[in-house]
Amino acid sequence: xxxxxxxxxxxxxxxxxxxxxxxxxxxxxxxxxxxxxxxxxxxxxxxxxxxxxxxxxxxxxxxxxxxxxxxxxxxxxxxxxxxxxxxxxxxxxxxxxxxxxxxxxxxxxxxxxxxxxxxxxxxxxxxxxxxxxxxxxxxxxxxxxxxxxxxxxxxxxxxxxxxxxxxxxxxxxxxxxxxxxxxxxxxxxxx
Length: 191
Description:
- The chain is mainly beta.
- The longest helix has 18 residues, at about 75-90.
- The strands form 2 sheets. Strands 1, 2, 3, 4, 7 and 8 form a 6-stranded antiparallel beta sheet that branches.
- About 10% of the residues lie in helices and about 30% in strands.
- The chain has a domain at about 20-145: CATH 2.40.50.
């Protein structure tokens, strides 16, 4: 048991928020936490990262979680992980690191998107945000920060936007007949 002193929960905001995924876009991020851990099978190591959003302002302080494979018995998985770490270092402007804390609080720009749905055993994991690409300040392809998807996950898409369906009498002018040129009996005018 640990003594934490007097704490009053009523003096703090306890509203629980159910955060949705961030919309696809180009974000300014920083690594806020890192930890080297064993893989689930115990046969390799991964670098667990927590990225904090710096820009766009609407999403500031939101978090994205990611893992980079450092060591793995599968040579291809290890190579992919080491390329990811090299890309992160280059995006930050580092050529060498010895401790993952050297990555902390260094601004970089990355493309963020959704992962694919994953199935592990009987569990199905919903898509989540992940870093799709790092951009390097030493090249000329640095994009502008901003949302690239047409709709934010926060945007409600109405079930019916009240636009007439194709072939509706209000849009075809032929009583709702299909493009074949045949008219429907209810679309004919009485003589």
